[in-house]
Amino acid sequence: MTKKEMKAEIRHIWIDQIKTAIREADNAIVNCADDGTCNFDMVMIEKESTFTYAEIIDIFKECGITSACKANEYSRYYSGLIALPCFHGQAEKNTRWAEVFRDSLKEQGFKTSMYYQCD
Question: Which residues contact 102 (CB under 8 A, 6 or more apart)?
């Protein structure tokens, strides 16, 4: 298998894993109340060496996380991370969705963390 073919295979695996994480997060908020403080909680993911920032962002965008971006667009302290804002409500629903999304990605081998911010 060539390097290009291997990269394409990894991309395909990532897409499947991300879509699984999205489904799990969507299911977690079906009966979740949207109480609490409005927030901008989101998942952060470490840049992986197989892909460039642009390629990773494109993979997430293809999966529906259309606002994915380099995290240092939020702050210079987040170098090496990619922000995955995907808001599903304004309070508890958003936090719950992001935490389940993070946990699912982490279980699948992604290096993730959370960014918590109240409005």
Answer: 43, 112, 113, 114
* pLDDT tens per residue across span 22-36: 999 999 999 888 888
In this structure, the number of other CB atoms found within 10 A of the CB of residue 95 comes to 22
Query: Rounded distance, CA 9 to CA 11, Å?
Result: 5
**Residues 112-117: what's their mean pLDDT?**
88
Q: What is the Cα–Cα distance from 56 to 92, expressed in whole angstroms?
A: 28
Buried b / exposed e over 11-49, threshold 16 CB at 10 Å, is beebeebbeebbebbeebbeebeeeeeebbbbbbbebee
Q: Environment class of residue 100 by beta-carbon count within 10 Å: exposed (0-12), middle (13-18) or buried (19+)? A: buried
Length reported for the chain: 119
Q: How far apart are CA 68 and CA 59, in angstroms?
A: 9
Q: Which of 37, 51, 18, 10 is nearest to 94 (CA)?
A: 37
